[in-house]
């Protein structure tokens, strides 16, 4: 979902939104305190066409075709409402099952990752029984020695590249990570897509986990914090250089997370996978910045 522009007059904004709807372009209006009514397009493939239509509308907003199309929009919405009511009788919607916990709702992939992390946390007896989840670590270190060539992964256990993100070693560890994952993950799912969040998570997880092994020289690590820092860096840069993306972090939140990052790095807070944090944050910042270039 992307913002293509603003219209100061509410009636004009609603007329244009109806016109877009009849043209097959799903959209939403959001009121902005300073700029009027923001026009958000749901399908990024239709952003170019919607922007052209907005330019034409601004040149002649009184064109009778916009008023005419508004009637067609009302009929389409009425039919869509009937279809939705029929659907609700057969199946409960996700919003009925899961009450939104953030302004963006609770993303389904975000919910699934939190659920997996909680299940793993219970299986490990709240982080005290590594034997029960031995297959989720990046490699076996039970003998006190470990092979830097990661033989398990070389022999097909490729899930180990990712699964350390689901391991947590205490209540504060998992609570802190899950709260941040809920907000950042749901924001990305709400403004972009679950598939985009999945791709971000996989890439950040693999790189931060391998970084912790080969740079941090430590196989006995776990936690979602590398991914969380990666998502933080992504949202931070994307929101900074591409405000129309709808991604945003308050400067206070960024400062707080960076202070925590350096407190861990300086060993003020010990026993932390600092390399995973650093790699995740670096990848997220780079990804957010580079992906914003096409919209600048």
Write a structural description.
This protein is mainly alpha-helical. It has eleven helices and three strands, in the order βαββαααααααααα. It has a three-stranded antiparallel beta sheet with strand order 1-3-2, covered by helices on one side. A hairpin with a 3-residue loop joins strand 2 and strand 3. Helix 8 crosses helix 9 and helix 8 packs across helix 11. The longest helix has 27 residues. About 3% of the residues have low confidence.
Instruction: Sketch the major β-sheet.
Output: 3 strands, antiparallel
What level of helicity do the residues show? 55-70%
Order of helices and strands: EHEEHHHHHHHHHH
Alpha-carbon distance between the two ends: 16 Å
Radius of gyration: 23 Å
**Average predicted confidence as pLDDT:** 89
Write the layout of secondary structure elements.
Blueprint: E1 2-7, H1 10-22, E2 27-32, E3 36-41, H2 47-59, H3 64-90, H4 94-97, H5 108-123, H6 151-154, H7 171-191, H8 194-214, H9 225-241, H10 251-265, H11 274-292
Helix pairs in contact: 1-3, 5-7, 7-8, 7-9, 8-9, 8-11, 9-11
List keywords for this structure.
single chain; 296 residues; mainly alpha; 3-stranded antiparallel beta sheet; 57% helix; 6% strand; elongated
């Amino acid at each position: 979902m992307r913002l293509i522009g603003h219209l100061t007059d509410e009636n004009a904004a609603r007329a244009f939104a109806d016109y877009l709807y009849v043209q097959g372009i799903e959209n939403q209006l959001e009121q902005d305190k300073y700029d009027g009514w923001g026009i958000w397009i749901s399908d990024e493939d239709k952003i170019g066409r919607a922007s052209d239509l907005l330019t034409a509308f601004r040149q002649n907003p009184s064109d009778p075709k916009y008023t005419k199309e508004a009637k067609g929009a009302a009929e389409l919405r009425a039919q869509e409402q009937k279809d939705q009511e029929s659907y609700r009788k057969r199946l409960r919607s996700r919003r009925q099952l899961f009450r939104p916990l953030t302004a963006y709702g609770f993303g389904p992939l975000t919910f699934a990752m939190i659920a997996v992390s909680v299940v793993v946390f219970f299986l490990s007896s709240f982080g005290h029984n590594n034997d029960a989840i031995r297959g989720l670590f990046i490699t076996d270190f039970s003998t006190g020695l470990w092979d830097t060539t990661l033989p398990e992964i070389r022999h097909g256990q490729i899930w180990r590249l990712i699964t350390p993100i689901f391991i947590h070693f205490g209540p504060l560890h998992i609570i802190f990570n899950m709260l941040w994952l809920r907000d950042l993950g749901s924001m990305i799912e709400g403004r972009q897509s679950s598939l985009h969040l999945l791709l971000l998570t996989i890439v950040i997880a693999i790189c931060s986990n391998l970084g912790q092994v080969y740079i941090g020289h430590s196989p006995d690590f776990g936690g979602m914090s590398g991914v969380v820092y990666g998502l933080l860096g992504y949202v931070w840069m994307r929101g900074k250089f591409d405000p129309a993306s709808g991604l945003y972090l308050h400067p206070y939140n960024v400062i707080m997370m960076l202070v925590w990052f350096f407190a861990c790095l300086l060993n003020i807070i010990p026993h932390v996978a600092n390399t995973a944090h650093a790699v995740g944050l670096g990848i997220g910042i780079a990804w957010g910045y580079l992906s914003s270039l096409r919209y600048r």
